[in-house]
Amino acid sequence: MILHLTILLLYQLGGEVAARVLGLPLPGPVIGMAALFISFVLFPKLAELIQPTTKVLLAHLSLLFVPAGVGVVGHLDKLSAHGPALAVAIVGSTVLTILAGVGTFLLVGRLVGARDE
Question: In the chain, which ranges are continuous DSSP H helix?
């Protein structure tokens, strides 16, 4: 398990280094995750190798939300000051995302000649 966690953390570190050195506007862990995905596609044995550890991590994923919850509680004053604006932004962006998905679905349906059945 230590080797598997080391592999995961090395990909995250590599992504962080790439983001800072290249000045990319993406978070390092996202770059590391993309590199890990590419490695899984190119080397399927790597995915098989770390699968037992990743299953354990996913089974206990809810524990990783505890620090986020503590962060929210630590900033309750800011949340109460900006809460309504955040709620409007979250609900508005969710509605816009759903509408964009529907529009894309309808456009693709027209382009491929789908008929109502």
Answer: 2-22, 28-42, 44-59, 66-74, 76-111
What is the distance between the alpha carbons of residues 9 and 37, in angstroms, rounded to a whole number?
14
Reading the block at residue 80, the tokens are: 């109460």
Q: Tell whether pTM > 0.70.
A: no
Check: CB of residue 15 under 8 Å from CB of residue 37.
no
Q: Which two tokens stand for residue 101?
A: 């998905």
Neighbouring C-beta atoms of residue 54, cutoff 10 Å:
13
56-90 CB burial, b ≥16 within 10 A, e <16: ebeeeeeeeeeeeeeeeeeeeeeeeeeeeeeeeee
The answer to whether residues 30 and 14 touch, using CB atoms and an 8 Å cutoff, is no
- Amino acid identity at 93: S
pLDDT digits (tens, 9 = 90+) for 8-28: 999 999 999 999 999 988 889
| C-beta of residue 38 within 8 angstroms of C-beta of residue 18 | no
CA 43 to chain CA centroid, Å, is: 22
